[in-house]
């Protein structure tokens, strides 16, 4: 009876592990329907420069994919200030490599809600550097998070009032 009970328990444990493994796999699979990060920014008011920058740098495809990402999205006003500080009168004057480096510094791998960002000391970015976080303050006041948890099919968007410079 004791050996039989172990066999049954092993079978139940294996079945439970397989079932949970299947649930975890299904839950980890990114959604493929709905508005992507680029679509959300394109549809919203105040992100025309961001969308144009993403397209100019050739990153629209990556931000429209199924990979789960979190984006710190600067407003048009934030970009206007940043272009001036970069010595550029327009987005066209910023070379694509510099622009791609700046934009990937605004992208965090994974689907991260605001509570996971504001409670961290720093977050890694796709360009390899880290953004320092102090509550809603990013990089010692380069930008503040002003709107959080805008959901897209492939991640989250957090609106910021500045441009993060690596």
Short description:
With about 170 residues, the chain is of the alpha+beta class. The protein is about 45% helix and about 20% strand. The longest helix is centred in the first third of the chain and has 27 residues, at about 1-30.
Secondary-structure topology with pairs:
Layout: H1 2-28, H2 37-43, H3 48-56, H4 60-64, E1 69-74, H5 76-85, H6 96-104, E2 107-109, H7 114-118, E3 122-124, E4 130-134, E5 137-138, E6 143-152, E7 155-160
Parallel strand pairs: 1-7
Antiparallel strand pairs: 1-2, 3-4, 4-5, 5-6, 6-7
Please describe what this structure looks like:
This protein has 166 residues and is an alpha+beta fold. Helices cover 43% and strands 21% of the residues. The protein is built from seven helices and seven strands. Strands 2-1-7-6-5-4-3 form a seven-stranded mixed beta sheet. The longest helix is centred in the first third of the chain and has 27 residues, at 2-28. Residues 1-30 have low confidence and may be disordered.
Quickly list its features:
166 residues, alpha+beta, 7-stranded mixed β-sheet, 43% helix, 21% strand
Q: Major sheet, described briefly?
A: 7 strands, mixed
The helix/strand order is HHHHEHHEHEEEEE
Strand content: 15-25%
* Number of helical segments with 4 or more residues: 7
User: What would the average pLDDT be, to the nearest integer?
Assistant: 84
Radius of gyration: 21 Å
């Amino acid at each position: 009876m004791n050996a039989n009970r172990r066999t049954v328990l092993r079978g139940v444990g294996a079945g439970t592990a397989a079932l949970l493994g299947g649930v975890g796999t299904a839950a980890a699979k990114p959604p493929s329907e709905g508005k992507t990060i680029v679509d959300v920014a394109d549809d919203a008011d105040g992100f025309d420069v961001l969308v144009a920058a993403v397209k100019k740098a050739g990153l629209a495809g990556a931000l429209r994919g199924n990979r789960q990402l979190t984006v710190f999205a600067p407003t048009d006003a934030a970009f206007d200030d940043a272009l001036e500080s970069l010595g550029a009168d327009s987005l066209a004057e910023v070379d694509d490599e510099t622009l791609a480096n700046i934009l990937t510094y605004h992208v965090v791998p994974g689907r991260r809600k605001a509570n996971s960002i504001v409670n961290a000391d720093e977050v890694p970015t796709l360009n390899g550097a880290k953004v320092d976080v102090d509550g809603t303050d990013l990089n010692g006041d380069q930008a503040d998070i002003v709107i959080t948890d805008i959901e897209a099919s492939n991640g989250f968007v957090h609106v910021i009032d500045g441009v993060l410079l690596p």
